[in-house]
Design a protein that fits this description.
- The protein has 219 residues and is an alpha/beta fold.
- It has 8 helices and 8 strands.
- The protein has helices at 18-27, 50-57, 73-83, 98-107, 154-167, 181-190, 199-202, 207-215, and strands at residues 5-8, 32-38, 63-69, 87-91, 111-116, 134-138, 172-176, 194-197.
- The chain has an 8-stranded parallel β-sheet with strand order 1-8-7-6-5-4-3-2.
- Helix 2 packs parallel to helix 3 (73-83).
- It is globular, with a radius of gyration of 16 Å.
- The chain binds D-xylitol-5-phosphate (DX5) and zinc ion (ZN).
- Residues 9, 11-12, 34, 36, 67, 140, 142-143, 145-147, 176-179, 196-200 line the site of D-xylitol-5-phosphate (DX5).
- Residues 9, 11-12, 34, 36, 67, 140, 142-143, 145-147, 176-179, 196-200 line the site of D-xylitol-5-phosphate.
Length: 219
């Protein structure tokens, strides 16, 4: 089976002890660390700012995958870049010029990606697929961890997989929301490359075992 990556989302971690929770997933073989940034405007929740990212960067060698659920990513992405982001993902639904922002972020030397909410189609991002490093397909409405996976998003993953393969684009498909071993299997079958998982790891009785199970999926 094709290799896939696991990106634990610290949204479901213990915010009073991020260092410990990050070390746990890092020592268990997580590939990326998914960091959910929310501004209380693009989504009805407020989470992490660049100050937190800067501090946790000192304690982790993981690839920092920063998911900006904010209305004005063009204003704030640089703060997250300076704080240690290795990948910055912003949303297709914001008003910013997506092509310009992708190119600007990539010019800084890190990776750039675009995310689509459940109601946004793959057609909406067709023109930026050749220049984006990652497409993040939301499999829940963004804003909160612990929601149920929307299986009707699977055709979007298949559609993206075909577009990327046929055109030989250098772009990873990341899925985010309601991912557990069962839904992960469905996403991998549809062609996903990166699995974000918050609740199914950090809210598990045994987070180490939960992460190991996600890493050892066979189709
Ligand atoms: C939701 C966030 C997700 C969230 C996923 O808006 O983008 O990254 O942490 O959490 P789970 O895996 O619990 O659905
Ligand atoms: Zn996310």
């Amino acid at each position: 089976m094709k290799k896939y990556l696991i990106a634990p989302s610290i949204l479901s971690a213990n915010f009073a002890n991020l260092q410990k929770d990050i070390a746990l997933v890092e020592n268990t073989g997580a590939d990326w660390l998914h960091i959910d940034v929310m501004d209380g405007h693009f989504v009805p929740n407020i989470t992490i700012g660049p100050g937190v990212v800067k501090n946790i960067k000192k304690y982790s060698k993981l690839f920092f995958d920063v998911h900006l659920m904010i209305s004005e990513p063009e204003k704030y992405w640089e703060n997250f870049y300076k704080a240690g982001a290795d990948l910055i993902v912003f949303h297709q639904e914001v008003l910013t010029d997506k092509k310009v922002l992708l190119e600007t972020i990539k010019k800084s030397g890190i990776k750039a990606g675009v995310s689509i909410k459940p109601k946004t189609s793959v057609e909406a991002i067709k023109d930026i697929l050749p220049i984006t490093d990652v497409v993040l397909v939301m499999t829940v409405e963004p804003g909160f961890g612990g929601q149920s996976f929307m299986a009707d998003m699977l055709p979007k993953i298949t559609q993206l997989r075909n577009l990327i393969d046929v055109n030989k684009y250098n772009c990873l498909i990341e899925v985010d929301g309601g991912i557990n071993v069962e839904t992960a299997k469905q996403c991998l079958k549809a062609g996903a490359d990166v699995l974000v998982s918050g609740n199914s790891i950090f809210a598990a009785k045994n987070p180490t075992e939960a992460l190991q199970n996600l890493k050892n999926i066979t189709l």
